[in-house]
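Work through this protein:
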Amino acid sequence: MKAWGDGERVTVQDARVIQEFIDHLGIERGLAGNTLESYARDLRQFLEYLGEEREDGQCPLLLREAEPARLVAYVVWMREKGMAPSTIARRLAALRSFYNFMVQEDYLELNPARDIDIPKPDKRLPRILTVSEVERLLRQPDEGRPIGLRDRAILELLYATGIRVSELVSLDLEHINTARRQLRCTGKGHKERIVPMGSISAGAVRRYLDAGRPELLRNPLEEALFVNNHGRRLTRQGIWKIVKRHGRGASIDKRITPHIMRHSFATHLLENGADLRSVQEMLGHADISTTQIYTHLTGRHLKDVYSRAHPRA
């Protein structure tokens, strides 16, 4: 096994092995940047816990604390802090994955988190917009202005395709074909997929490309489909602000985010007869069980319709 010096501190050694793990996740498993940041944050929080548990306040090397009892105590501590089961499950999953990596790399002989039960998080149904709320939201941008043309195209694409905000900001001009009414995007794990779009969203994108983007552009060589006021690629934060601003303008009494458009896209498709496999492919879900959460929403919708419409409900 690889040996670490007795006098070395956590700030050096743990940081190094954690970075090796994060690099492994990024290179070998192709995880997105936000996911990598989440793993690193969960591991740092465990290190902070270890430091708090030491009487001398000095956080020892993570390897020296790698026993199941320590991890069980960590679970108890998180529960006493009132953390949600989903948070505890995510942190334990990160630790289990990290220790698996350490075993593979011969830092440890056994994974101390292997037999620790990960609590099942409560299944919370995703929030969605009604069709009328979506229509109100889509009417908000002022298409008499270049920014309005851009915002309308963004909102239409989010609802018409269900793509993630990270996928949206990564779109280049070459990735969209309004004539064929489809776009090509790269999702989690660097997996590429083709997603269809409707005639309305394709028309909104064409109007933006004809009259909006040229007015916003500063560099004619810019490849980004959606640009900000300075002519540079829009960021995730920029998209969030756009969606939030128009949500307020539409007086929708819900927390409006780009992801709520994705949830609404999937739910409305299933409510109108789309099959689960097709929705899974369009969303870019690796596992159909992830897509099945939307069947709970459509089931609830059918019960509501039945209760309102059936004379003996």
Remarks:
- Residues 1-10 have pLDDT under 50 and may be disordered.
- The domain at 131-309 is CATH 1.10.443.10 (hpI Integrase; Chain A).
- The chain has 13 helices and three strands.
